[in-house]
Amino acid sequence: MKNLFGSPGRVSGLVMRVLQCLFASASVGIMVSSSGFSTSTAFCYLIVSMGIQFLWSFALACLDMHALRIKKDLQNHLLVSLFAVGDWVTSILSLAAACSSAGVVVLYAKDTKLCKDQKPLNCEGFQIAIVMAFVSWFLLAISSHVMFWLMASS
Description:
Oligomer: single chain
Radius of gyration: 17 Å
Structural class: mainly alpha
Order of helices and strands: HHHHH
Mean pLDDT: 88
């Protein structure tokens, strides 16, 4: 198999997984600390989706760290296929959650003007959490793309 940026068992793969964990946990933390997040199902879906992404990325980061420590190659067809499917599923969930949450924030801020009229809603916090979710998804999309190419090359 090829040695691509972000491959499992490589330092670049570990760094990408750690960054995915950080941005996903930041998104959850900011969303949960924002007042009024429970007013929308999309925000709750974002929290669940980022939680799943955090757990997936954390598990793979631990696996990468272990592989780097014992100098084990993780690039066999079965593992890469498992990583690819897991990345695809979590990537789709994360993108859907981030897009639906962004749509709700646009509805609140632009269409209904709830962000200006009602103080309990923390729209700035929602927006920051959604940006963190999109960054986390972008990193996961890169990992998913790398896994696809590794799976195709084997």
